[in-house]
Specification:
It comes from Albidovulum marisflavi. The chain is of the alpha+beta class and about 270 residues long. The chain has helices at about 60-70, 90-105, 110-120, 180-190, 195-210, 220-225, 250-260; strands at about 5-20, 25-45, 50, 75-80, 135-140, 145, 155-160, 230, 240-245, 260-270. It folds into two domains: about 5-145, Ribosomal Protein S5, domain 2 (2-Layer Sandwich), CATH 3.30.230; about 150-270, Alpha-Beta Plaits (2-Layer Sandwich). The relative contact order is 0.19.
Length: about 270
């Protein structure tokens, strides 16, 4: 094993997440976020050592399970560091596993890596794919139920609101979004950012109505700042406002902080 380093971008909640039918699998459309990432480095070493720079990104036991699942030797000194908070809905857990796999020298398919991640922790974001936002992703199965095309551009601002919450793979208490998925696919095909933002907002409303918190300010803030719509981490604290390019108000950071958002962030998706 040689010394290697990688960077795996996270996400910032989901444009959509819910059940595919009232009793169907949990599916989602993720929102990639280049502003947050897990960085990793590995050096040759006898035995397996995993360090998180004060963060519990991956235990040695979890790393051993992943490496075993992808057929790599459980050896090396791995160091991982995340720029996103754990439990925030920004993909730290999946990004850490993807980083471990790539640092180990694994070169298999994204589908195989997704299945290995699910074997480790029961659910996975599609961060191992080159364009994860184009997948209708079944996060507990590790399979793309459908695919769309490239998204139009959004300028996204957001932060973290409410308590952190790590994903429980046994948790399937989500709203049925089977009616929203055809609308989403059609709006992607037509390149209609306004329609995509409205559909994302509806998915967020359904989840907040079902799961709370009831005092979530994201929708009101979206309207006040003139955003096209909003998105949330359907488990986790990430909250996003979706703007047409170059229309974000200059005081966005101050307004988000005043509403109780932590760690304000800005990035672009699509385009």
């Amino acid at each position: 094993m040689s010394t290697r380093s990688v960077r795996v971008a996270g996400h910032f909640g989901e444009f959509l997440q819910g059940r595919l039918g009232p009793f169907g699998p949990v599916v989602l459309v993720t929102m990639p976020c280049p502003a947050f990432a897990v960085r990793g480095r590995v050096q040759p070493a006898a035995g397996l050592h995993v360090h998180g720079q004060g963060q519990r990104l991956a235990t040695p036991e979890r790393a051993r399970r992943l490496l075993s699942a992808i057929g790599r030797a459980p050896s090396g000194r791995y160091t991982l560091a995340a720029t996103m908070p754990l439990g925030g809905g920004a993909g730290a857990s999946t990004a850490a596993l993807v980083a471990l796999a790539r640092l180990s020298g694994w070169t298999g398919t994204p589908e195989d890596l997704a299945r290995a991640c699910i074997a480790c922790e029961g659910a996975s974001d599609p961060l191992m794919f080159p364009s994860p936002e184009q997948l209708i992703w079944a996060s507990r199965i590790g399979s793309a139920m459908d695919r769309t095309g490239p998204l139009p551009a959004f300028d996204v601002v957001g932060g973290f609101f409410g308590p952190m919450q790590r994903t429980d793979p046994r948790d399937t208490r989500f709203a049925d979004i089977s009616d929203l998925l055809p609308l989403w696919k059609g709006a992607v095909l037509d390149g209609r950012a306004d329609a995509l933002a409205r559909i994302s907002s509806e998915s967020a409303r359904r989840t907040l109505s079902l799961r709370g918190p009831q005092d979530d300010p994201t929708q009101d803030l979206s309207l006040e700042l003139g955003a096209l719509g909003h998105a949330i981490a359907h488990t986790g604290a990430a909250r996003a406002l979706l703007f047409a390019p170059r229309t974000v108000p200059k005081d966005w950071r101050t307004r988000l902080r005043a509403a109780g958002f932590r760690r304000p962030v800005r990035f672009r998706v699509g385009g």
